[in-house]
Write a structure and sequence with these properties.
Layout (H helix, E strand, L loop, with lengths): L2 H44 L1 H18 L44
Length: 109
């Protein structure tokens, strides 16, 4: 075996050991999360009044988050005219604004 092959094998072994350590930590965190969820579930079973309170709060949150029947966006989009372009009012009934002769926008033509 060459020196290079030995180094490659050592690097591979080190990476495998590091990956295993990460997997072990992740598994331990998953177990802790499961225990916390089971503690909450046990509390809800032992104290039904708490379960009802939580269910009521979830219901209120769902009702508050529902979309109303009014599908219009609460954001008003405003068109901005660029110098030298024509714009039409949103209703479309009024005539288009003519470009100004010379000068900057806002200055009399």
């Amino acid at each position: 075996m060459t020196r290079e092959e030995g180094t490659d094998r050592t690097d591979r072994t080190d990476r495998m050991a590091e990956a295993l350590a990460h997997l072990q930590l992740a598994a331990l965190e998953l177990i802790e999360a499961a225990r916390a969820a089971l503690d909450v579930a046990e509390d809800l079973v032992r104290e039904p009044a708490t379960a009802l309170l939580v269910a009521g709060m979830v219901g209120e949150a769902v009702r508050a988050g529902r979309v109303t029947t009014d599908r219009r966006s609460p954001v008003e989009h405003v068109r901005v005219a660029h110098p030298g372009t024509e714009t039409k009012p949103r209703g479309g009934d009024a005539p288009a604004e003519a470009p100004r002769a010379g000068g900057s926008p806002g200055e009399p033509g």
